[in-house]
DNA sequence: GTCTATACCCGGATAGAC
DNA sequence: GTCTATCCGGGTATAGAC
């Protein structure tokens, strides 16, 4: 990725990004050409490629911006002290952030299963952003009394559940994405329920089993 | 999709499909061009397009063939009477079937999150194949004593878990996909465990909650 | 360093002659 | 049913203006 040195360049980059996102939201990712984006930003094709190496690089920049914005919004959201409230808040702020961006999400999830693609959500190219996202979920369990290893595992599990919520969001045709919000609340409740019963049989036996399995499996691609 | 009327046409179609799959397995989906496929099948580009409307249509044909072959193999596999054994058998026969085809799977999962794409695993274009696959899992619960509505739900849940297993398979670098087999066994055990405890508190409360949620959510896209 | 213009390659998809 | 020629868009390359 080209790194513009000047603040003017940075502004232009931002300008192109916004033109691209507007086009993606309007016509979808595949139906938007790089020539459209350049024209929308009022510049030549070559200039657009000067700032973004590829169309995917624009999505990558969006992904990074989205994660930063998500952290900002979550930080300023009134966050309850319970695990369930925190996870619901993480998911709800994200759903609000993505409300108009479902067509862009499609582009992000298109490479989910391609380990070699730089934009793959499980791949190396996205590890920085992914780690920050996983951390948000892991921190939701801070101070909950969950054993440390289980906390780390729960954070990763919640992050994966959050991927499922995003896929559901893309397909959700209900008004104001009501059903996805329902799902998000259920995910929060599920993880919130897990914490107090984590050490109580018979649930503890199930969690031990799951933790043991996760230990043997590792994260995808590892 | 073009439907060749003659048996000679059907043979040509099969011939192209095999050339395409060989190329996909060798070089991956994106690195294989339609010109490569046509050349591999010993014909011109236009001729190949006469049999398959698009590159994705080849993947769709593979998807259909794969489902049929999976049903054949599962039917002839020694299948234990327990739910766990059945689910493990469904997953294991599928993993065997896909052993060399992980690069093709990438193409199938690329449109997972795109509701409008004809190849989307949740979309309309794949509903026939999907329904048959979901049925395999639903039938694994037949005679288990699970209430009917829960059986249907469990079948769908198992099918979705199976999607997760396939994504894990794509990323699995372990020898002979050992780790994916571990995961598949765990999925079988999990659903097998569910059946006898489905009506026993506290598990029944959890399942009631999940069933109620699923009822409100519906399947993705519905 | 920022940007334009233009020509080009490659690969998916199409048109139309035969 | 098969071919050649062509279009279209992502992406590259280059020459040059400021």
Short description:
The structure is a homodimer of 222-residue chains. Chain A is an all-alpha fold and 222 residues long. In chain A, 68% of the residues lie in helices and 0% in strands.
Set out the fold topology.
The structure is a homodimer of 222-residue chains.
Chain A: H1 7-27, H2 34-40, H3 45-51, H4 55-76, H5 83-97, H6 102-109, H7 127-139, H8 148-171, H9 178-197, H10 203-217
Helix pairs in contact in A: 1-2, 2-3, 4-5, 4-7, 5-9, 6-8, 7-8, 8-9
The structure holds a DNA duplex (18 and 18 nucleotides).
Describe this structure in words.
The structure is a homodimer of 222-residue chains. With 222 residues, chain A is an all-alpha fold. Chain A has 2 domains: 1-53, Arc Repressor Mutant, subunit A (Orthogonal Bundle); 58-217, Tetracycline Repressor, domain 2, CATH 1.10.357.10. The first copy, chain A, has 10 helices and no strands. Chain A has helices at residues 7-27, 34-40, 45-51, 55-76, 83-97, 102-109, 127-139, 148-171, 178-197, 203-217. Chain A starts with 6 loop residues before the first helix and ends in a 5-residue tail after the last helix. The model of chain A has no long low-confidence stretch (mean pLDDT 94). Chain A binds chain B through residues 105-106, 109-115, 122, 167-168, 170-173, 179, 182-183, 186, 213, 216-218, 220-221, and chain B through 105-106, 109-115, 122, 167-168, 170-173, 179, 182-183, 186, 213, 216-218, 220-221. Chain A binds a DNA duplex (18 and 18 nucleotides) through residues 4-6, 8-9, 12, 33-35, 43-47, 49-50, 53-55.
């Amino acid at each position: 990725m080209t790194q513009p040195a000047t603040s003017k360049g940075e502004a232009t980059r931002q300008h192109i990004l916004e033109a691209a996102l507007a086009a993606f939201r309007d016509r979808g990712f595949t139906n938007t050409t790089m020539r459209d984006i350049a024209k929308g930003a009022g510049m030549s094709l070559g200039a657009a490629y000067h700032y973004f190496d590829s169309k995917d690089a624009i999505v990558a920049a969006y992904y990074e911006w989205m994660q930063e914005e998500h952290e900002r919004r979550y930080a300023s959201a009134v966050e309850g002290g319970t695990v369930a409230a925190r996870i619901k808040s993480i998911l709800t702020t994200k759903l609000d952030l993505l409300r108009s961006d479902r067509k862009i999400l499609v582009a992000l999830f298109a490479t989910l299963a391609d380990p070699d693609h730089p934009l793959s959500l499980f791949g190396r190219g996205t590890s920085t952003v992914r780690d920050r996202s996983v951390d948000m979920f892991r921190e939701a369990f801070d101070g909950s009394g969950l054993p440390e290893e289980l906390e780390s595992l729960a954070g990763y599990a919640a992050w994966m559940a959050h991927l499922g919520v995003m896929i559901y969001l893309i397909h959700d045709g209900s008004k104001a994405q009501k059903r996805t919000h329902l799902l998000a609340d259920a995910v929060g409740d599920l993880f919130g329920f897990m914490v107090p019963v984590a050490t109580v049989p018979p649930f503890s036996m199930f969690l031990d089993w799951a933790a043991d399995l996760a230990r043997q499996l590792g994260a995808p691609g590892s």
